[in-house]
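Is zinc ion placement plausible here? Inputs below.
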Amino acid sequence: MKNRYSGSCLCGEVRFSVSGFSQQAANCHCSMCRKFHGAAFGTLVGVQDLTWLSGESQLREYAAPNGTVRSFCGYCGSSLGFRAKDMPRNQMELAIAAFDDEIPVRIDAQIYTKYKAVWCELYGDVPVFKEGREP
Ligand SMILES: [Zn+2]
Ligand SMILES: [Zn+2]
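Reply from A.M.:
I modeled the complex. Tokens:
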């Protein structure tokens, strides 16, 4: 039974590991996620016990006008993390695509689909929300 899961950016400067994941992970189709990830959607997951194995000093941050902060590698630009306004850095959510290990995460929602790209097809078997998850 594995107890740590590792990930890294494209150039390998930034490496991290975590001990577990939140139950929820959504594909977010909002325009900020699309642009930050350079992709049809972004998928971030809450993690437990985030540890930077290397390259923490290479992390760069972008604070959006709404106060949300996105972290990326300063060398290769890989999109790595997201956190809400005023959250400490080590409580950021991580981009699931940056993990190198297989991770026990299942996509359980498709959110902000009102803003999705017309060329992007939604998954048929995962709940869809026009905005955020309903409470
Ligand atoms: Zn990098
Ligand atoms: Zn989003």
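Short version: The beta strands are 5-8, 15-18, 20-28, 42-48, 51-54, 59-63, 69-73, 79-83, 93-95, 109-111.
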